[in-house]
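Notes, p. 3: input format for complexes.
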Amino acid sequence: MILRVTHFGESILREPGKPVEHFDTALRELAQNMIETMHAEEGIGLAAQQIDRALQLFVVDLSVLSEIDFDYRLDGKKPPLDLIMPHVFVNAVLTPLPGRALVAEEGCLSFPGIRGDVPRAPAVRVTYQDLDGHAHELETDGWFARVLQHEFDHTEGVLFIDLMENRARRMLEPRLKRLKRATEESFGAPS
Ligand SMILES: [Zn+2]
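Output follows (191 residues plus zinc ion):
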């Protein structure tokens, strides 16, 4: 089932996620719906806050980026990307790995039509659980690391506009105001 994606201006996007405690069919169904929604919106990542749930849960699908260079180790191995995508992250904890921050342009399904440069750690380590509650560790760099940082931030109520440099953020300000007003008019959800 395709779910409604929340937009900037809805307070849920600022809510830190609660830990997932039950690894049951409801969680499986929610994750499946999030994957369907991400695919329908042509996104490469989607967090629970973006479908109106404050949970430590996000999904990614990097298979469209397979031509772009990035490396990864999942539990110390490198399974083919197609085999591990789409991928569900439950109760993720993200650690940025040392290195100079890299800047690249990002978008977000909760900010239609808005893009901007965001500095990110060049590589990350993520520990998380899968839908059965089993623990995993993923280390990656490049766009995979960037997407994980973007989605992990959502689960803490942090948005990509928070990380933009002041100048980039200022330039987007009029469009952000318009988007926020449109959101409030649609859903009556002032934040
Ligand atoms: Zn986003």
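DSSP finds five helices and eight strands in the chain.
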